[in-house]
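Cont'd.
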Amino acid sequence: MAITNNRLTAEQYEQNFSDIHPPFDSREAALVDANRCLFCYDAPCTKSCPTSINIPKFIKQITTDNIKGSAYTILDANIMGGGCSKVCPVEKLCEGSCVFNLMDEPPIPIAKLQRYSTEKAIDHKWPLFQRKPSTGRKVAVIGAGPAGLSCAHVLSREGIDVTIFEKERKGGGLMTYGIAAYKVTPEFCEDEVNFITSLGGIEIKYEQELGKNVSLADLQANYDAVYIGIGVGVARQLAIPGEDLAGVEDAIRFIYDIREKGYPSVPVGDRVAVIGLGMTAIDAATQAKRLGAKEVTIVYRRTQAEMPSTEVELNLAKLDSCSLIWLASPKEIKGENGQVTQLICNVMELGVPDTSGRRTPIETGETITLNVDMVIKAAGQVPFEDLVDSNQLNNWKGKIAIDSNCATNIPGVFAGGDCVNGGKEVVDAVQAGKDGAKAILGFMYKERASE
Amino acid sequence: MADLSANFLGIKSPNPFWLASAPPTDKQYNVLRAFEAGWGGVVWKTLGSQVKNVSSRYSAVDYGGSKVMGFNNIELISDRPLDINLREIAECVRLFPDRAMIVSLMADNSREKWHELIAQVEDTGAHGLELNFGCPHGMTERGMGAAVGQDPEIAKMVVEWVMEKATLPVITKLTPNVHSVVPTGRASVEGGTNALSLINTIQSITGVDLDTFVPNPYVAGKSVYGGYCGPAVKPIALKMLTTIAQDPITSRMPISGIGGVSTWKDAVEFMLLGASNVQVCTAVMKHGFRIIEDMCDGMNNWMDEKGFKTLDDFIGKSVPTITHWEDLDINYHIVANIDQDKCIHCGLCYIACEDTSHQSINLSYGNPYNTYSIKEDECVGCNLCKLVCPVDSCITMVEQRKGDEYLNWKEFQRRGLPLNDH
């Protein structure tokens, strides 16, 4: 029993991490599904999309071979519509509300059709957007993730010059670093960022971290407005004995390493326990399996009825033959010679609903013991509380407080995305970026009017 | 089991499905395959003279993801040597004596040429002749095909020439490229034809290639009008058929129905509107001869369900229901009703009514599903919402008569009743 890397052959890695939602093979295949779309009025799918993409319109455009128009319809509403078509939990968003569900028919494969158009746009580098002449106004954006990029794109289209400060070496944020590699490739993430910045007027300064290389005060002094889209990044601690043993890994870090270092470099145990059952937990569990772990067990303290993951995601884990233990909460991690050997869990039962409406798990007094050599923590993420506090930003346990106009307590400083909401889908962050840009434009116009 | 056997002018076939005069009936190979598949009869592709074809010859209209809802061609009558055709016709008759063998003809414009051709064809043992007065391209320039069908006097003259010589039953095939098929139909009856068939193809341009800018079909950078057929022409064919079935002179003739027949349902519709049998072409060009199986089977099951024992039990049954607008009952009124349990909230009924009809549907916003209901007082009963609804019997039209008695427009005017009361 050991944690080792390089468990598989190059071919096995390639196969394990190939696209799980392959694109349409042909134009004809796309047209068959596009032509099924009823072109609903005031469409439920559009209403269920956080970025309100006019889905019936873009699908209609596919049926007429107007792919450029289709891509514009998507990307005008959601500049990361390409990536979202690969990573969105569409079963609970657009596709989940497709009217065909009410007829017990398969919904329109909206994501696949969205990918059909946007991938062409990105591959062919179609110049779908043009920016207005520069106004000379400057905005600083912190974080080149979905919120920051979306905000920057809207602002640049309006002639604002945007500088993005990104702590990593690549843009894309969660899309690039926080999502299972079989959903998006690093190449796609890079192409998507390049597509967004090809508009012009957006400069990304890499390896520039807030509080380290750049300060909020400097940005305030040098720019007309600042947008904070720093995401949420630190894994929640379990606060149980043994958490410091070798072999206890944080899911964010684990996924980051897979994206950043290449599959053979990432060590994985023979028997892995994953704590939690959100999207990140699923991504960690499936990828541990795909890296060559022999057994992967997901431990979740409630039942399937309360799980944050969608059923589609859960099925991914099941199909990768990950096992699940419901109603179990980590109590202690045991080890030998500093290495993880066992995970001891309290057996739980459900009590009364908590503030989120989910029934609170209560200890039964029984325990179970799992023999494992690796524990991956995916029990949620906590915001950058110190960073936010030290910049005098009003916040709630690190989640930046904003008003209905995306404004923080500091005049001219706006925020959105995961750093505000504590972590939602990519598509929510894109919408937050749009909202932030709109608020910043309003702020600057108002300021100009009063000058 | 219903009896599908057909008797058209004494020409018997095991079912009422014939293949129309067209590429599928151009040679022995195809016709034998068709007979083996179960087709009741064929109209051999038109015999004549002086033919040279071009390529390409076909083009199609696709719609909503479906291929070939309309089809057109610029092919001419048979371009194979006459003697080979005649020999093969005889061979097919010998091998399948129970199937109908009709031969389509288009002779040069003289009495002698027609007589000569008829004599040659009758020697084959074929059961009937069909006069091609419809082909809309290539032959018209030489005063043949549709050029004959478009001029009742010439049509009558040619039919008379034919009837002088023919001993076999004669069917005259009409062109739809006229404002009404009735005059040529009547002229053909006066000329002595034994039956009519319709429609031939309609002159058309199916579309233009957006890269070459040349319409389809493409022939070395040029195109011409082609003859349109396939499912898209069925409504036009049915209308023309009905006018022939209603006219006091032409209705005396047996009619062979042609024009977009693709399924047993289409065939039943043609026969309800007066056709004694049907001819099929585009559907087999798209799917092959095997579609005959469902055509026979489907018609059989439908007849059993309706209690029809033979084809004569339902041929022409719908003709009397076609009347004049002024004879329609004005007191008949319907309003739409939406079954909320079946509604999938697509909003198609709402936007159709709102933008293009009578604003009779109420929308109440919901997330993500809106609710739609009918404003009964505003509904004029036009039916549009029902037509666009994607769910079977979700929208139904409920009868709400304006008065008990039958009242038509003539009577309405005579009584001086108020207009625009709803």
